[in-house]
Amino acid sequence: xxxxxxSIIQSIRSDIVKGLIKPGQRLPSIRMQSQKFDCSVxxxxxxxxxxEKEYLIYSRPKSGYFVVxxxxxxxxxxxxxxxxxSAAPDPSSISQKDFRQCINKAMELFEASIFTYPDPxxxxxxxxxxxxxxxxxxxxxxxxxxxxxxxxxxxxxxxxGMPFPNGxxxxxxxxxxxxxxxxxxxxxxxxxxGIERTPNGMDWAxxxxxxxxxxxxxxxxxxxxxxxxxxxxxxxxxxxxxxxAQAYDVYIVEDDYLADLETNAKADPIRAYNGSSRVIYLxxxxxxxxxxxxxxxAAVPNSLIPLLHLYKQSADLSTSVLSQGVLEIYLKSxxxxxxxxxxxxxxxHRMNKLRDISRRLLPKDSLYSIQSSGxxxxxxxxxxxxxxxxxxxxxxxxxxxxxADRQYLxxxxxxxxxxxxxxxxxxxxxxxGLGIIAEEMERxxxxxxxxxxxxxx
Length: 457
Hints:
The relative contact order is 0.12. The strands form four sheets. Strands 4-11-10-9-8-5-6-7 form an eight-stranded mixed sheet, sandwiched between helices. It has a three-stranded antiparallel sheet with strand order 12-15-14, with no helix packed on it. The chain has helices at about 1-15, 30-35, 40-55, 75, 95-110, 110-115, 125-135, 150-160, 180-190, 205-215, 235-250, 305-315, 320-335, 335-360, 385-395, 425-450; strands at about 55-60, 65, 80-85, 145-150, 170-175, 190-200, 200, 215-220, 250-255, 280-285, 295-300, 375-380, 400, 400-405, 415-420. By secondary structure, it is an alpha/beta fold.
């Protein structure tokens, strides 16, 4: 019956997508369909129920089944694209069943809290679970040092705008860096200094000069699986950062947004290197759970707790209790750990695929920061071709890429980079997409008429 039902579903779905059955049109009755497809009434009922779960049709009591509005069909009608640009998880990677169970359980367990304004710092029970999670990453903190934010973006915005105990005012950023941090600083008109980060790290002498002479309030860094480069600091570099911060009274905002994807069990955060008095350790949950939950957590030094509590309360009174409850249940039930391991395996496999195919298909000098494993991002360096035209041609061929320009300060020298994300690409997409990118890069190089030979691996 299953094969018969699947063929019926495919036939009806195809007619809807092709427009042979119009939006709002009533589908043939269950009895008529059973005669048409020569099957039982129960098979048609089951097929209609499956199509209803896909939001292709809906039922009206005593009236039958109807096709949904055209707007809901657009994703099915549109041509499939290869997406190297997105940074949000594929909805199909999240178990909707698990999420609904957690929502329902959160409504039951936290019903009383939903009708109050809880602690701006976050639910105590969730902070206790975050302490356990952070301990797994060698970040040892107490529940009093944990803050729950409405997404990492809120945390960055508050930290950028509040005064720090060191009395300094300037902010140091890696270049390139996460665009959301740049937006927060621009909106608040903060004084920002950039320091270049390459696949080989950074100029440590320059970093120390900044710490010593430029009144740096804090240094914002993504030490693990950098966005957009995808690279990570070594253990020695992390320890050196912690020591410099201590020596020059500079705080570090450590954005460890992909800690769950780490494949090296010995890769500890900066906070683990005697950095508890100077390092704000920030974790997002958007890449493993649903970004729409808007949740992040931070372990902060004791010196920041009173002021950050005040700023957090003034921003939103408290983070959504329902979202916090869902995360707590995810953590306590083991769902989070299970899902994180699945995502780590999936993304690691895709990054390895990206590395191998890039080395095979792309020019050698374009492999700017192809990682060996882990993370979500890497960067391709372009020659002096028309980047906007190249991106336009790729878009026309169904390949979405993202220029890294907006991930630089406006006055900072920009490298000609494309950020490559594997979060929404499978193996077939990666191979097909990189093949198209290689073709368009070669075409752009020929058009430019460069005398430099095109160097292929």
